Amino acid sequence: MRKSFYHFLMKYRQPTERDELTAFANNVYDDLAFPKQAEDYDEVSSYLELNGLYLESMRIFDEAWEQYLIEEKY
Questions:
Q1: Quick one: which of 19, 30, 4, 29 has its CA closest to 56?
Q2: Buried b (16+ CB within 10 A) or exposed e, 7-32
Q3: pTM attached to this predicted model
Q4: How far is 27 from 8, CA to CA, in rounded Å?
Q5: Distance separating alpha carbons of residues 44 and 20, to the nearest angstrom
Q6: What is the per-residue pLDDT across 16-56, written as a single tens digit (0 to 9) for each?
């Protein structure tokens, strides 16, 4: 069974921000409307483009998505 992107990202959540990925994970955790069950790039990307004001650059999301694909072996 595949993990959702949200579930994958939560392993990078930390009490203090160490890097851009940790900050992204922390902000997604606090975003109650984030599509937590999504496994589709376009769904998550569209959501972040419209609602991800906490994301400085979509590059951070793209890098996290690439890691998601590698670790989940898509």
A1: 19
A2: ebbeebbeeeeeeebebbbbbbeebe
A3: 0.90
A4: 14
A5: 18
A6: 878 999 999 999 999 999 999 999 999 999 999 999 999 99
